[in-house]
Design goal:
Helices cover about 15% and strands about 30% of the residues. It is built from 2 helices and 7 strands.
Length: about 120
């Protein structure tokens, strides 16, 4: 799990597909978007990182997969084999989980795709 708090953290991501998607997602944010005040991005490399309860980041906390994380999805975008799952916390803080589709089970992926805009 890699928490991205600003654009200088991009170098922490080594997987090319995840890094390319992160750059794409960061580049479409408004110029006045402030990290981590308005939100953050989390790179998830392994499904086990979502099974902890709760999932604690520097800026926020999310429920685990076993505790209804997928019920709190705001929106999902898919580009090739990468998924961005967006959660809104306390009505004003956005958290985007960026991961590969392949880490999810068929059931989890089906649930996630219900929120897809792609």
């Amino acid at each position: 799990m890699i928490e991205i708090l600003d654009k200088t953290d991009i170098h922490k991501v080594h997987d090319k597909e995840l890094k390319d998607y992160l750059i794409y997602s960061l580049n479409r944010l408004p110029n006045d978007f402030e990290y981590p005040e308005y939100g953050s991005f989390i790179i998830i490399e392994n499904i086990d990182e979502l099974k902890r309860n709760p999932i604690k980041f520097k800026t926020c906390e999310l429920q685990s997969l076993e505790n209804s994380l997928l019920d709190d999805i705001e929106i999902v975008e898919i580009k090739d084999d990468v998924i961005e799952i967006v959660f809104i916390i306390h009505n004003d803080f956005g958290v985007s989980l960026i991961c590969k589709k392949e880490i999810f089970s068929t059931y989890e992926l089906k649930k996630i795709l219900e929120y897809s805009i792609s």
